[in-house]
Specification:
By secondary structure, the protein is mainly alpha-helical. It contains 7 helices and no strands.
């Protein structure tokens, strides 16, 4: 059980890191002159942060989550009407707004699944160590994962529809007030995801 949950977490975390890095690379915020040097520098700094956080908390997912979100921020800010109108943020993104949103949702989804796998693994090991039947607990764990994936798929679909609506609004030239409302709603959704994930992953960081 632990072998495939660990493998799943590694694959999901690495894929999330790569996708968020791709989003970052394709923005003007990554333009530090030499591409190779910039790529090496960014990855070394990210790995150092992840390594230090892991040594301090023995939790790999939380620092990976924050690194991925940090990579995604510039690509999201490139299409922020609030940043454009009020703060004059001038970040260029080679991806379209729709592609950026889909990639960002994919990163969030994979990180959520990785966090769920960690939680299920911890619960499985705890119950087995307390004398519960291993096969029965394994079946319960797998069913729990299936239910979670179904819920996540539904949530992803609804969020995807919201992204489509947001993409339509993005191309409407409205007032500053409308831009602020849309931006605040988007930021609330983004910060809500960050809060939810960080609470889930830091709750047992010392375990």
């Amino acid at each position: 059980m632990k072998e495939w949950t660990l493998t799943g977490r590694i694959v999901l975390s690495v894929t999330s890191y790569i996708l968020s890095l791709i989003l970052f690379i394709n923005t003007s915020a990554f333009d530090y002159g030499d591409f190779k040097t910039s790529l090496i520098t960014v990855n070394v700094v990210a790995l150092i942060i992840i390594g230090i956080a892991f040594v301090l908390s023995e939790n790999m997912l939380t620092p990976i989550f924050f690194i991925c979100m940090g990579f995604c921020v510039p690509s999201l800010m490139a299409y922020s009407k609030l940043g454009e109108r009020l703060f004059e943020v001038n970040v260029q993104n080679k991806f379209s707004a729709f592609s950026t949103a889909v990639l960002f949702l994919t990163v969030i989804g994979m990180l959520l699944i990785a966090g769920k796998l960690k939680k299920l693994e911890r619960e499985y090991l705890s119950q087995v160590s307390n004398g519960a039947d291993e096969e029965a607990i394994k079946l319960i764990t797998i069913n729990s994962l299936k239910v979670y994936l179904s819920f996540l798929a539904g949530t992803f679909f609804i969020t995807f529809l919201v992204v489509v609506v947001g993409f339509v609004f993005l191309n409407i030239r409205g007032s500053t007030f409308i831009a602020i409302i849309i931006a605040v709603l988007g930021m609330a959704l983004f910060l809500g995801c960050m809060y939810y994930l960080s609470r889930k992953w830091t709750k047992h960081s010392g375990k």
